[in-house]
Amino acid sequence: MNVSLFRNTDYVNNKIVLHVIQGLFTGFSFWMIGSSVNDLKLRLFVVWNIIFVAPGVINQLQPLFIERRNIYDAREKKSRIYSWKAFVTGLIVSEFPYLSICAVLYFLTFYYTVGFPDDSNKAGATFFIIWLHEFICTGLGQAIAAYAPNATFAALANPLILGTIVACCGVLVPYSQITVFWRYWLYYLNPFTYVTGSLLVFNIFGASVDCKESELAIFDPPAGQTCGEYLAEYQSGAGAHYLYTLNLNDYYFDWRDVGITVIFILSSYCMVYLMMKFRTKASKKAE
Protein backbone atom coordinates (compact mmCIF):
# COMPACT_ATOMS: atom_id res chain seq x y z
CA MET A 1 0.00 0.00 0.00
CA ASN A 2 2.88 2.38 0.71
CA VAL A 3 4.39 1.73 -2.70
CA SER A 4 1.02 1.99 -4.42
CA LEU A 5 0.20 5.31 -2.76
CA PHE A 6 3.66 6.72 -3.48
CA ARG A 7 3.16 5.94 -7.18
CA ASN A 8 -0.30 7.55 -7.21
CA THR A 9 1.03 11.05 -7.89
CA ASP A 10 -2.38 12.47 -8.81
CA TYR A 11 -3.79 11.63 -5.39
CA VAL A 12 -0.74 12.82 -3.46
CA ASN A 13 -0.37 16.04 -5.44
CA ASN A 14 -4.07 16.87 -5.12
CA LYS A 15 -3.89 16.25 -1.39
CA ILE A 16 -0.95 18.63 -1.00
CA VAL A 17 -2.44 21.30 -3.25
CA LEU A 18 -5.73 21.17 -1.32
CA HIS A 19 -3.98 21.97 1.96
CA VAL A 20 -1.73 24.67 0.53
CA ILE A 21 -4.59 26.48 -1.22
CA GLN A 22 -6.93 26.16 1.76
CA GLY A 23 -4.21 27.37 4.12
CA LEU A 24 -3.31 30.36 1.94
CA PHE A 25 -6.98 31.22 1.44
CA THR A 26 -7.55 31.27 5.20
CA GLY A 27 -4.30 33.10 5.90
CA PHE A 28 -4.82 35.92 3.44
CA SER A 29 -8.56 36.21 4.09
CA PHE A 30 -7.77 36.95 7.75
CA TRP A 31 -4.41 38.70 7.27
CA MET A 32 -2.72 39.71 10.53
CA ILE A 33 -5.68 39.81 12.87
CA GLY A 34 -5.39 42.49 15.53
CA SER A 35 -6.43 42.50 19.20
CA SER A 36 -9.75 44.32 19.23
CA VAL A 37 -13.05 42.83 20.38
CA ASN A 38 -14.10 42.28 16.77
CA ASP A 39 -10.78 40.55 16.11
CA LEU A 40 -11.71 37.90 18.69
CA LYS A 41 -14.61 36.96 16.44
CA LEU A 42 -12.27 36.85 13.47
CA ARG A 43 -10.09 34.35 15.32
CA LEU A 44 -13.18 32.24 15.82
CA PHE A 45 -13.85 32.31 12.08
CA VAL A 46 -10.24 31.36 11.37
CA VAL A 47 -10.76 28.20 13.41
CA TRP A 48 -14.04 27.64 11.57
CA ASN A 49 -12.19 27.85 8.23
CA ILE A 50 -9.43 25.55 9.45
CA ILE A 51 -11.73 22.60 10.09
CA PHE A 52 -13.26 22.98 6.63
CA VAL A 53 -10.35 21.16 5.05
CA ALA A 54 -12.19 18.03 6.20
CA PRO A 55 -14.70 17.75 3.29
CA GLY A 56 -11.89 18.00 0.72
CA VAL A 57 -9.74 15.39 2.47
CA ILE A 58 -12.67 12.99 2.79
CA ASN A 59 -13.87 13.44 -0.79
CA GLN A 60 -10.36 12.80 -2.11
CA LEU A 61 -9.66 9.60 -0.21
CA GLN A 62 -13.00 7.79 -0.49
CA PRO A 63 -12.96 6.95 -4.23
CA LEU A 64 -9.42 5.55 -3.88
CA PHE A 65 -10.41 3.57 -0.78
CA ILE A 66 -13.46 2.08 -2.49
CA GLU A 67 -11.55 1.31 -5.70
CA ARG A 68 -8.92 -0.60 -3.72
CA ARG A 69 -11.60 -2.35 -1.69
CA ASN A 70 -13.32 -3.52 -4.86
CA ILE A 71 -10.04 -4.92 -6.19
CA TYR A 72 -9.49 -6.68 -2.87
CA ASP A 73 -13.01 -8.15 -2.95
CA ALA A 74 -12.54 -9.45 -6.48
CA ARG A 75 -9.02 -10.78 -6.10
CA GLU A 76 -7.32 -11.16 -2.71
CA LYS A 77 -10.39 -11.99 -0.63
CA LYS A 78 -11.72 -14.69 -2.95
CA SER A 79 -8.30 -16.30 -3.33
CA ARG A 80 -7.67 -15.93 0.43
CA ILE A 81 -4.27 -14.31 -0.10
CA TYR A 82 -4.62 -12.19 3.05
CA SER A 83 -7.41 -11.11 5.41
CA TRP A 84 -9.47 -7.93 5.34
CA LYS A 85 -7.72 -6.88 8.57
CA ALA A 86 -4.35 -6.72 6.82
CA PHE A 87 -5.98 -4.89 3.93
CA VAL A 88 -7.53 -2.21 6.17
CA THR A 89 -4.32 -1.82 8.16
CA GLY A 90 -2.40 -1.22 4.94
CA LEU A 91 -4.88 1.42 3.81
CA ILE A 92 -4.75 3.24 7.14
CA VAL A 93 -0.99 3.18 7.75
CA SER A 94 -0.02 4.14 4.19
CA GLU A 95 -1.80 7.50 4.66
CA PHE A 96 0.23 8.50 7.73
CA PRO A 97 3.30 10.05 6.01
CA TYR A 98 1.13 12.19 3.75
CA LEU A 99 -1.07 13.31 6.64
CA SER A 100 2.03 14.57 8.40
CA ILE A 101 3.36 16.42 5.32
CA CYS A 102 -0.04 18.03 4.71
CA ALA A 103 -0.34 19.05 8.37
CA VAL A 104 3.03 20.88 8.19
CA LEU A 105 2.12 22.68 4.96
CA TYR A 106 -1.36 23.56 6.19
CA PHE A 107 -0.02 24.98 9.46
CA LEU A 108 2.72 27.05 7.81
CA THR A 109 0.39 28.56 5.20
CA PHE A 110 -2.23 29.89 7.62
CA TYR A 111 -0.81 30.23 11.14
CA TYR A 112 1.64 33.10 10.75
CA THR A 113 -0.33 34.89 8.04
CA VAL A 114 -3.37 35.30 10.31
CA GLY A 115 -1.20 36.61 13.14
CA PHE A 116 -1.73 33.91 15.72
CA PRO A 117 0.61 33.95 18.78
CA ASP A 118 4.32 33.52 18.05
CA ASP A 119 4.94 31.76 21.36
CA SER A 120 6.48 28.38 20.63
CA ASN A 121 4.26 26.62 23.16
CA LYS A 122 1.06 27.90 21.54
CA ALA A 123 2.31 27.52 17.98
CA GLY A 124 3.53 23.99 18.68
CA ALA A 125 0.28 23.03 20.38
CA THR A 126 -1.72 24.42 17.46
CA PHE A 127 0.35 22.40 14.99
CA PHE A 128 -0.23 19.29 17.08
CA ILE A 129 -3.98 19.83 16.88
CA ILE A 130 -3.80 20.40 13.11
CA TRP A 131 -1.90 17.13 12.82
CA LEU A 132 -4.53 15.30 14.87
CA HIS A 133 -7.27 16.91 12.77
CA GLU A 134 -5.80 15.22 9.69
CA PHE A 135 -6.21 11.84 11.37
CA ILE A 136 -9.79 12.66 12.39
CA CYS A 137 -10.73 13.56 8.81
CA THR A 138 -9.04 10.49 7.34
CA GLY A 139 -10.46 8.07 9.88
CA LEU A 140 -13.97 9.45 9.49
CA GLY A 141 -13.77 9.36 5.69
CA GLN A 142 -12.44 5.82 5.62
CA ALA A 143 -15.11 4.62 8.07
CA ILE A 144 -17.84 5.95 5.77
CA ALA A 145 -16.15 4.48 2.68
CA ALA A 146 -15.58 1.08 4.33
CA TYR A 147 -19.30 0.29 4.38
CA ALA A 148 -20.52 2.40 1.44
CA PRO A 149 -21.50 0.25 -1.57
CA ASN A 150 -19.94 2.74 -3.98
CA ALA A 151 -18.32 6.17 -4.20
CA THR A 152 -21.61 7.87 -5.10
CA PHE A 153 -23.28 6.64 -1.91
CA ALA A 154 -20.30 7.82 0.15
CA ALA A 155 -20.41 11.25 -1.52
CA LEU A 156 -24.11 11.55 -0.65
CA ALA A 157 -23.54 10.48 2.97
CA ASN A 158 -20.70 12.95 3.56
CA PRO A 159 -22.76 16.19 3.59
CA LEU A 160 -25.32 14.70 5.97
CA ILE A 161 -22.71 13.49 8.46
CA LEU A 162 -20.30 16.42 8.17
CA GLY A 163 -23.07 19.02 8.11
CA THR A 164 -24.53 17.65 11.31
CA ILE A 165 -21.33 17.50 13.31
CA VAL A 166 -20.02 20.85 12.02
CA ALA A 167 -23.30 22.59 12.92
CA CYS A 168 -23.20 21.22 16.47
CA CYS A 169 -19.54 21.77 17.40
CA GLY A 170 -20.24 25.08 19.15
CA VAL A 171 -18.73 27.44 16.58
CA LEU A 172 -21.46 28.03 14.01
CA VAL A 173 -24.07 27.97 16.77
CA PRO A 174 -22.86 28.90 20.30
CA TYR A 175 -23.24 26.17 22.91
CA SER A 176 -26.07 27.93 24.75
CA GLN A 177 -28.05 28.31 21.52
CA ILE A 178 -27.77 24.73 20.27
CA THR A 179 -31.12 22.96 20.32
CA VAL A 180 -31.46 21.13 23.64
CA PHE A 181 -31.94 17.76 21.90
CA TRP A 182 -28.51 18.07 20.23
CA ARG A 183 -26.73 19.98 22.99
CA TYR A 184 -26.61 17.25 25.62
CA TRP A 185 -25.33 14.39 23.49
CA LEU A 186 -24.26 15.25 19.93
CA TYR A 187 -22.22 18.25 21.08
CA TYR A 188 -20.17 16.02 23.39
CA LEU A 189 -19.96 13.09 20.95
CA ASN A 190 -18.60 15.36 18.25
CA PRO A 191 -14.86 15.23 17.41
CA PHE A 192 -14.93 18.74 15.94
CA THR A 193 -16.10 20.10 19.31
CA TYR A 194 -12.73 19.23 20.81
CA VAL A 195 -10.63 20.17 17.77
CA THR A 196 -12.14 23.66 17.65
CA GLY A 197 -12.18 23.97 21.44
CA SER A 198 -8.46 23.32 21.80
CA LEU A 199 -7.61 25.64 18.88
CA LEU A 200 -9.68 28.44 20.40
CA VAL A 201 -8.17 28.08 23.88
CA PHE A 202 -4.59 27.94 22.58
CA ASN A 203 -5.03 31.04 20.44
CA ILE A 204 -7.50 33.20 22.39
CA PHE A 205 -7.40 32.36 26.10
CA GLY A 206 -5.43 35.01 27.97
CA ALA A 207 -4.95 37.18 24.89
CA SER A 208 -4.78 40.94 25.46
CA VAL A 209 -7.76 42.86 24.08
CA ASP A 210 -7.33 46.46 22.98
CA CYS A 211 -10.74 47.94 22.32
CA LYS A 212 -11.15 50.30 19.41
CA GLU A 213 -12.86 53.59 20.13
CA SER A 214 -15.95 52.41 18.25
CA GLU A 215 -16.17 49.38 20.58
CA LEU A 216 -16.21 51.35 23.82
CA ALA A 217 -19.46 51.61 25.79
CA ILE A 218 -19.80 55.10 27.22
CA PHE A 219 -22.24 55.52 30.11
CA ASP A 220 -22.67 57.12 33.50
CA PRO A 221 -22.75 54.77 36.50
CA PRO A 222 -25.56 55.15 39.07
CA ALA A 223 -25.07 57.76 41.73
CA GLY A 224 -22.63 56.71 44.44
CA GLN A 225 -20.97 53.96 42.37
CA THR A 226 -17.82 53.86 40.31
CA CYS A 227 -17.74 52.18 36.90
CA GLY A 228 -15.80 49.28 38.43
CA GLU A 229 -18.40 48.75 41.17
CA TYR A 230 -21.27 48.99 38.71
CA LEU A 231 -19.74 46.42 36.33
CA ALA A 232 -18.35 44.07 38.99
CA GLU A 233 -21.15 41.50 38.65
CA TYR A 234 -20.93 41.53 34.86
CA GLN A 235 -17.14 41.13 34.89
CA SER A 236 -17.31 38.14 37.24
CA GLY A 237 -19.71 36.28 34.95
CA ALA A 238 -19.74 35.28 31.27
CA GLY A 239 -18.82 38.81 30.27
CA ALA A 240 -15.39 38.33 31.82
CA HIS A 241 -14.20 36.26 29.12
CA TYR A 242 -15.16 35.76 25.50
CA LEU A 243 -14.58 31.98 25.57
CA TYR A 244 -17.09 31.46 28.38
CA THR A 245 -19.85 31.97 25.83
CA LEU A 246 -18.38 29.05 23.84
CA ASN A 247 -18.43 26.68 26.84
CA LEU A 248 -14.65 26.97 27.28
CA ASN A 249 -14.29 28.02 30.89
CA ASP A 250 -10.62 27.53 31.74
CA TYR A 251 -7.19 27.15 30.19
CA TYR A 252 -6.95 23.45 31.07
CA PHE A 253 -9.68 22.81 28.48
CA ASP A 254 -6.93 22.95 25.82
CA TRP A 255 -5.07 19.76 26.69
CA ARG A 256 -8.25 18.14 27.94
CA ASP A 257 -9.70 18.57 24.46
CA VAL A 258 -6.46 17.31 22.91
CA GLY A 259 -6.71 14.10 24.93
CA ILE A 260 -10.34 13.61 23.93
CA THR A 261 -9.39 14.23 20.27
CA VAL A 262 -6.86 11.39 20.47
CA ILE A 263 -9.60 9.11 21.80
CA PHE A 264 -11.80 10.07 18.85
CA ILE A 265 -8.97 9.29 16.44
CA LEU A 266 -8.57 5.81 17.87
CA SER A 267 -12.31 5.24 17.82
CA SER A 268 -12.62 6.46 14.21
CA TYR A 269 -10.02 3.95 13.04
CA CYS A 270 -11.77 1.25 15.06
CA MET A 271 -14.90 2.19 13.13
CA VAL A 272 -13.04 1.57 9.86
CA TYR A 273 -12.33 -2.01 10.95
CA LEU A 274 -15.86 -2.44 12.28
CA MET A 275 -17.53 -1.16 9.10
CA MET A 276 -15.28 -3.34 6.96
CA LYS A 277 -16.14 -6.35 9.11
CA PHE A 278 -19.87 -5.70 8.71
CA ARG A 279 -19.48 -5.33 4.97
CA THR A 280 -17.38 -8.51 4.73
CA LYS A 281 -20.10 -10.45 6.55
CA ALA A 282 -22.79 -8.94 4.34
CA SER A 283 -20.91 -9.87 1.15
CA LYS A 284 -20.48 -13.46 2.36
CA LYS A 285 -24.24 -13.73 2.91
CA ALA A 286 -24.87 -12.30 -0.54
CA GLU A 287 -22.61 -14.96 -2.08
UniProtKB/TrEMBL annotation:
Location, primary (coarse class): membrane
Coiled coil (UniProt feature): none
Keyword entries, A-Z: Membrane, Transmembrane, Transmembrane helix, Transport
Domain of life: Eukaryota
Residue span(s) of domain ABC-2 type transporter transmembrane: 4-200
Subcellular location: Membrane
UniProt topology in membrane: Multi-pass membrane protein
Record Pfam families: ABC2_membrane
Database matches in PANTHER family: ATP-BINDING CASSETTE TRANSPORTER (PTHR19241)
Protein name stated in the entry: ABC-2 type transporter-domain-containing protein
